[in-house]
Amino acid sequence: MKQFFKKHWMDILVVCAVVGLLVFGGIEIGDRFSFNKKWTVFVRYFVKNNGYKELLIGMKNTALIAVVGLAIGIVIGTLIAVIKVIPPYKKPTRYAQTVCNVYVAFFRGTPIVVQLLVGYYILLPLMGIKLPSVWSCVLIFGLNSGAYISEIMRGGINSVDPGQMEAARAVGLPFPVAMLKIVVPQAIKNILPTLGNEFIALIKETAVVGYVGAMDITKYFQIQGDNSYDYMIPYLVMALFYIIVVAAIAALVKLMERRLAKNERH
Amino acid sequence: MSVTEKGKVLIETKGLTKCYGTLTVLDHIDEVIRNGEKVAIIGPSGSGKSTFLRCLNCMEDPTAGSIYFEGVDLADMHVNINTHREHIGMVFQQFNLFNNKTVLQNIMLAPVYVGIRNLRRLKWKNFWLKLARKPLLPVETSKAGIVASARAKAEELLSRIGLSDKADKYPSTLSGGQKQRIAIVRALAMNPKVMLFDEPTSALDPEMVGEVLDLIKQLATTGMTMVIVTHEMGFAREVADRVLFMEGGVIAEQGTPDEVFNHPKSERLKNFLSKVL
Asked: What is the rounded distance in angstroms from the CA atom of residue A115 to the CA atom of residue A109?
C-alpha cells in the first residue's frame, strides 16, 4: 500500500485536485455560481435523462477507436518498419521504401484533426466508401498510429542483435520468416514500454473525433454541457475520467512489462 | 552426414573478391573444398579469413567472382540462396542462439519450417497434377509428423551433447560453452553437407573451450566436411586435413598441418607462427 502511494502520488494528487475543485470550487465563487445547483443540474441530466447510457456508448467508442486503431497501427507499423530495413538491393524494394517514406511523412506531417476531416469528408466519399463515423475514425487513427509505430518499431528492430538475423538466415530461413519469427518478437519486447505510451497517447488523441460526429467521452460531456447550459462540472468530470482510464492502462502496461522481464530470466 | 563420394568437389570459389568501399578484403581467391575434407583457416586478424568463410554461404555478398556449391553458383542473384543454405551449417563466434525461443525450439525451428514448406510445395504440385488429370505424387508426411520427427531428432542431438535437461530453458540461462554446443547442434539438425565454423571458441571462457572443441573433434570423426576459422593452433593441427594461411586477402600458403606448422615456407607465415605458437 505504501509502495502504491509512493508510485502513484502524482496521479492521486491530480485526482484530489479535480475532486476538490468539484466539491469546493462552486462555493468560493459565490451564490451566482453555486456549486450545489450546478451539481444538481449535472446529476439530473446524467442520471434522470439517461445520460449515463450515452456516456457508456462514448466510452465504448473511445475504447474501440484506441484499441482497434492501435492494432491496425501495429500491423501497418511492423510492415513499414520491416520494409524499411530490407537491404535495398532490388528495385521493387526501393520503390516500396519510397512509398513508405511518403506515407510516414504525410501522417506525421499533418495534424490528426486534419487527417480526420480530409479522410472522413473527402477521401472516403471520393472512394465511394460509406462507413459510420466511428469506423472511419478507427481507420484513420489506425493509419495515423501506423506511421508513428513504424518509427518505434524500426528502432526496436535495429536494437536486436544483427547476429540473430544472420543465424536465422544461415539455417535457411528466408528474410520475411526470419524477421517474423525471430527479430520482430524480440523487437516488440524491447519497445513494449514505448508502445504503451503510444496507446495512452492514442486514447487522449481520440478526444478530437467529435469533429466528424463520432460520439466519444469528450463529445458526450460537451453535449451535456450544451444541454444544461453549464460546462464546469461536465468538463471537470471529463478530465477525471481520462485520468482514471489512463492511470489504469499505465498500470496494466507496467504489469505486462514485468511479466515479460520475468519470462526472459527463466 | 553422408561420407558418400568422398573427394568430390563440394565448394569451389573462382576469383572470389570482396570489397568494402575501396578496401579490398578478399582478392581473387580460387579455392576448392572437397567432400569429407577438414579445412582450417588461420591468419592474423584483418586478413579476411572470417570474410572468406562468410562468403561461402553468401552471408556477405561477394563483390565479384563466383562460389559454386555442388555446381550451383551461389553468388548469382537469381539462385534461391535459402534452399542451398539449408545444406551449409554455420556456427558463429557469438553463438547467436534465438533469444526468444527455448533450446528445443531453437533446434527445431529450421527443420520444421523447411519440412512444412516442402510439404506445401508438394501439395501445390499435386493440385496442378490433379487439374491436369495426371497421377499424383505420394504425400508421405503430415505437419504433425514433421514436427514429431524434428522433435525426436532435436532430443537425440541434445542427449548426445548431454544437455537434455536444458531443452525447455531459454538461451540467456546457459553458459557460453553450452550455448555454443547447442548452436553446433542447431546447425546439425538440418543434416548439412558442410559445416562452417567462424572462430567457434573465441568468445568463450578458457575453461569452456575444451568442451566445444571436443564436440567439433567428435564431429570430425563422423566424416563431416568442415571449414574452421580458428586461433587455436593446436586444434587446427590436430583436426585439419589441410591448413590455409590467409594474409592480406589472399591465401598466402597452404598444405597439410605438418607442412604449414613444421616447415613453413614463406617469411610471413614463419613470422605469424612465431607470434602465436
From this structure: 10
Residues A170, B85: C-beta atoms closer than 8 Å: yes
CB pairs under 8 A between A and B: 69
Which residues, including other chains, have CB under 8 Å from residue B171's CB and lie 6 or more apart?
A: B95, B97, B98, B99, B101, B103, B106, B179, B182
**A162 inside 8 A of chain B by CB:** no
At A248, list the grid cell.
Answer: 489504469
pLDDT for position B11:
92
C-alpha cell at B64: 565479384
Rounded to an integer, what distance in angstroms lies between the CA atom of residue A171 and that of residue A188?
23
Triad B107, B111, B117: Cα angle to 5°:
145
Which has more confidence, A175 or A45?
A: A175
Residues of chain B found within 8 Å of residue A89, distances taken between Cβ atoms: 77
**Subunit contact B96:A163, Cβ cutoff 8 A:** yes
Q: Are strands B250-255 and B242-247 parallel, antiparallel or unpaired?
A: antiparallel
CA distances from B239 to A131, B203, B205, B223 (A): 70, 20, 21, 11
First to last CA, chain B: 33
* Phi and psi at residue A132, to the nearest 5°: -60, 150
Stretches in chain B below the pLDDT threshold 70? 1-5
Amino acid in the structure at residue B35: N
Tell me the per-residue pLDDT of B201-219, one tens digit each, with 9 for 90 and over: 888 888 889 999 999 999 9
Looking at beta carbons, which residues of chain B come within 8 Å of A178? Answer: none
Please list every residue in chain B whose beta carbon sits closer than 8 Å to the beta carbon of residue A181: 109
